[in-house]
Design a protein that fits this description.
This protein is an alpha+beta fold. The chain is built from 14 helices and 46 strands. The strands form nine sheets. The protein has an 18-stranded mixed beta sheet that branches. Strands 4-6-2-1-10-13-12 form a seven-stranded mixed beta sheet, with no helix packed on it. A four-stranded antiparallel beta sheet has the order 7-8-14-11, with no helix packed on it. This is Aminopeptidase.
């Protein structure tokens, strides 16, 4: 009897706990055209807060697809994706009908079904721990799958975040939460029952347990997913001594890939279980999840008809699916609010990847097998340091790359404002490196045991990762810095200052730039390659640490080798104890820009042949610089060259230094000097020397807005011919320029503004320019430009510094004109959008003021129409009105475009005999412009 009572008590306890879980029961009928879903739904919701509720919030996230202007549309535009913005009505997702009744079968009013957050008023307060039952009937139009990977398509239907559910991360039911397509969990610790009514011959896969072909039930700590398809997607069952689980796939997999997975998955699951102690009974991998969580950087390189493999198909399957499976298991076993604590599961995924790579790919290279490809018996990639970088180094290198541009963010930055690149480099890679560093210091087994216990203790509970860091600090005091580390942009740096030999010992001085007590790993190496590692503890407020080691046959000293800690600068982590470069860094000369090798001071010698203009023609020379693929604070570049057009030596050079404050309104403050010597006409050369300073203001890395301020002083000296001397042209002059620029390169509404003032002893002028480009339909744009220029003072001797109407006077030698002084021929027809911006050859220049308005609009494919109008006034002359219009052909948009004038102030131009000479073109050969356009949407 006593045993029976105890058993009854235990069962009652389980029932009580179970009763506190919410439940959602759904019957969903899919229409024959697979476009709409009719839903009958019951929600049993408990008050999980500590106070009474007068209203309940339900998430109606399908409404994120219902119109322009939603948070989802804006986020997609930030990612350079305008498909949802331009979607047709039938492609959108929305709730068409919605009726809600409470426990008393009374209707619950809903203000509007188009809101993503539905706040429902209750007739009676819902006390803590009490529950309410809601009956929902609604009909939804499914969005096209192309927008987010969820929705309907001809092949299949992917359902996630479409059903109306409570927000379990907002127990008070007061905060709005909009859908951003970031794979965040919102409904956890819930019992689901979902019954589908679908057209015949449909197959359904889900992360819920499949009871019958169309019926799914079970508890979930994540949101339910369903794939409804005409194809039956594969399932792989793992049945080993330690692991029994079923892995379902929501996409087609080749037979070869299935064979690879049947070999690798048991090994991967055992590895993961050994580290975190948990493997779910089933896993569901959707096509979207695979694309988001697979291994970054192992894809084959495709170029034209060629394909270069970095890794074998089996290795790719292993690398890809280890990351996919790891993240899926973490998602199923750990409940966190992704907006605030994204870094925890992302970091643990990278931590598991690092351990896996250490064990199975310790010697694998970042470029895989690519450097082994030969051309005519030569392996050119072997010349690059990148060919020797380990695959494991990718975690430190990704952080270094984004940090070198001062575009990194705090690890605990809210996910909504995290850039796409920082999602990987900071939230995942940097955090994972810190976990790995801590595990290396305290011992992997000890770290993994702590992680196992933490996950087990918090099963079915929302976790707050700072608690994990607290437990970690108690277990290993040297990790106490982590909690504060997450809350600031990382600029921690260790530096090997120097060493001194004292009898048989080495006294090594280590400097750190922080007061935090962060340990550092020191490694010594002999000439024979023997290595010894030491963990060096540092104290709070201790910035200089002296370590004494037996000198033995030590040849090299290294701190935090192999990028194991996310430092601000690895270049000062190496010292040699013997040879010419003792207590210094070695110098290495390289031919092509490369991933930097922090062990050396690298100087790049790049042979260059380039066409510059019709006077210098091809320049043959060598560029000496220290700029690698990663930005550096101190940069220099020197390019002596031989001008094939003049037979003389020309060239350019520059030196700059940038300050990159981590936490400031300023992102970059640069100072520099530069000089150049080239030709601007036949046998006429110019010299240009500049001092400058530029300020780039801080920007949100997700934002497309950039702001900058610049000031420069430039001295010019140029040769003059007899005619120019007769016209009293300037052979020497200096210019002061101060300017402010604002650009917003967002996808639909692109705009910019600049304001500058320029002066010298003979004039001062103020110039303003505004630009707006509207994409009114896919690839169809309307551009508007407004320009205004005014001479405050103009006492110049000729028209050199005047504003141009249809041509620019490139007295600052900054427009890279092919024919700087050409007055006829094809070179004179080159067009630069500056000053007045008129495309027709309207005569004259402006020495007092000008204002112009330029319009350009898409018509069909590559064909545009343009029109320009403006007013200008010269001294002692009346104000003039001018205009032109024509057709623009965008052969390569923004780089090669042709202008065909039609009607202007001059008349009907196609009727002129010399019409061919009136056609204009733009030609921009600027690699940095192409790179900046390509990286938009990443940071």
């Amino acid at each position: 009897m006593k045993k029976f009572s105890i058993g009854l008590f235990l069962i009652w306890g389980v029932v009580q706990v179970s009763a506190q879980k919410d439940s959602i029961s759904i019957h969903a009928k899919l229409s024959q055209d697979r476009k709409t879903l009719v839903v009958n739904q019951e929600i049993v919701y408990h008050n999980h807060s500590d106070k009474a509720l007068n209203s309940i919030k339900l998430l109606n996230w399908i409404s994120a697809y219902n119109k322009r202007g939603t948070s989802l549309v804006y986020r997609k535009l930030e990612d350079r994706n305008n498909s949802l913005h331009f979607a047709k009505q039938e492609e959108l997702g929305k709730v068409l009908e919605l009726n809600i009744k409470n426990s008393g079968n009374q209707p619950v009013p809903v203000k509007t079904v188009s809101d993503e957050n539905l706040f429902l008023s209750l007739n009676e307060s819902l006390e803590p721990g009490k529950s309410i039952k809601l009956q929902l009937q609604y009909k939804m139009q499914l969005p096209d799958k192309k927008f987010t990977g969820y929705g309907t398509s001809e092949q299949d239907i992917a359902l996630k975040y479409f059903f109306i559910v409570p927000d379990h991360f907002d127990s008070d039911n007061i905060s709005k939460r909009n859908y951003h397509d970031i794979e965040e969990s919102v409904n956890f610790n819930t019992y689901w029952s979902v019954d589908f009514d679908t057209p015949s011959s449909s197959f359904i896969q889900s992360n819920l347990q499949q009871i019958q072909p169309n019926l799914f039930k079970g508890y979930l700590d994540s949101d339910p997913e369903f794939i409804i398809s005409k194809n039956n997607f594969p399932t792989i069952k793992i049945d080993t001594e330690d692991i029994k689980t079923e892995i379902k796939f929501g996409y087609t997999i080749s037979k070869q890939e299935i064979q690879n997975l049947e070999f690798y998955l048991p090994l991967q699951l055992k590895f993961i279980k050994d580290k975190i102690g948990f493997i779910p009974e089933q896993l569901f991998i959707s096509e979207k999840f695979r694309a988001k969580e697979d291994f970054f950087g192992n894809n084959d390189i495709k170029f034209w008809k060629f394909r270069f493999k970095l890794f074998s198909d089996a290795e790719n399957a292993d690398l890809d699916y280890f990351g996919i499976i790891s993240k899926k298991i973490l998602d199923e076993s750990i409940i966190t609010d992704k907006q605030e604590n994204h870094w925890f599961k992302n970091g643990l995924k990278s931590y598991l990847e690092i351990l896996y790579l250490k064990k199975f790919y310790g010697e694998a290279k970042l470029l895989g097998n690519l450097p082994e490809n030969s051309i005519l018996g030569v392996k050119p990639l072997k010349l690059f340091h990148a060919s020797r970088v380990k695959l494991l180094d990718r975690y430190g290198l990704a952080y270094q790359y984004i940090m070198s541009q001062n575009l990194d963010q705090k690890i605990d930055e809210p996910f909504a404002v995290l850039s796409n690149f920082n999602d990987m480099a900071i939230s995942s890679f940097e955090t994972g490196s810190l976990f790995s560093y801590s595990a290396d210091k305290m011992g992997e087994e000890k770290f993994n045991l702590l992680l196992k216990n933490y996950i087990a203790k918090n099963t079915d509970k929302q976790v707050y990762p700072e608690d994990f860091l607290d437990q970690l600090a108690k277990e290993e005091s040297s990790t106490s810095y982590l909690k504060g580390f997450l809350k600031q942009k990382n600029r921690v740096n260790f530096r090997l200052k120097n060493f001194r030999i004292n009898n048989d010992s080495l006294n090594i001085k280590i400097v750190k730039n922080t007061d935090e007590a962060i340990p550092v790993k020191l490694e010594t190496q002999t000439r024979n390659g023997d290595r010894t590692s030491y963990w060096i503890e540092t104290e709070e407020n201790e910035r200089l640490k002296t370590v004494t080691l037996p000198s033995e046959d030590i040849y090299k000293i290294t701190l935090n080798n192999d990028y194991i800690f996310p430092e601000a600068n690895y270049r000062d982590n190496f010292l040699y104890t013997k040879g010419l470069f003792s207590n210094a860094k070695k110098i290495k000369f390289k031919l092509i820009k490369d991933i930097p090798n922090p062990e050396f001071n690298e100087i790049y010698l790049n042979p260059r042949i380039r066409f510059t203009n019709t006077y210098d023609k091809f320049l043959i020379g060598v560029n000496f610089k220290n700029q690698s693929l990663f930005d550096q604070k101190f940069l220099y570049s020197l390019t002596p060259s031989f001008s094939t057009g003049t037979g003389k030596m020309t060239g350019s050079g520059a030196v700059s230094y940038s300050f990159l404050p981590a936490e400031s309104v300023i992102q970059r403050l640069s100072f520099g000097v530069s000089g150049s010597y080239f030709h601007y006409d036949y046998d006429l050369a110019y010299q240009k020397s500049s001092l400058y300073s530029n300020i780039s203001f801080r920007k949100n890395p997700r934002s497309t807005v950039s702001r900058g301020l610049g000031i420069s002083y430039t001295y010019f000296e140029r040769d003059l011919n007899a005619k120019m001397i007769a016209n009293r042209d300037y052979d020497k002059y200096n210019l002061w320029t101060v300017g402010y620029g604002y650009t917003d390169n967002q996808m639909i509404h692109e705009k910019s503004f600049s304001l500058s003032t320029q002066g010298m002893e003979d004039y001062n002028k103020i110039t303003a320019e505004g630009f707006y480009r509207w994409e009114f339909a896919p690839r169809q744009k309307l551009s508007l430009r407004l320009f205004a220029g005014y001479f405050v003072r103009n006492e110049t001797r000729n028209n050199t510094f005047n504003y141009g109407i249809s041509r620019v006077s490139d007295y600052s030698f900054s427009y890279n004109l092919l024919g700087q002084s050409a007055s006829s021929g094809i070179l004179s027809q080159q067009f630069i959008l500056a000053d007045g911006g008129f495309k027709s050859f309207l005569p004259g220049t402006v020495n007092q003021w000008i204002t112009s308005f330029n319009v350009d609009s898409s018509v069909w494919k590559i064909f545009h129409v343009y029109a320009d109008a403006g007013l200008y006034k010269n001294k002692n002359n009346p104000t003039q009105f001018i205009w032109d219009s024509g057709v623009k052909v965008r052969l390569i948009p923004d780089f090669l475009e042709v202008y065909l004038p039609v009607q202007s102030s001059l008349g009907f131009e196609p009727g002129f005999k010399d019409y061919g000479k009136r056609i204009r073109y733009t030609l921009i050969l600027n690699l940095s412009t192409i790179i900046n356009a390509a990286r938009r949407g990443w940071y």
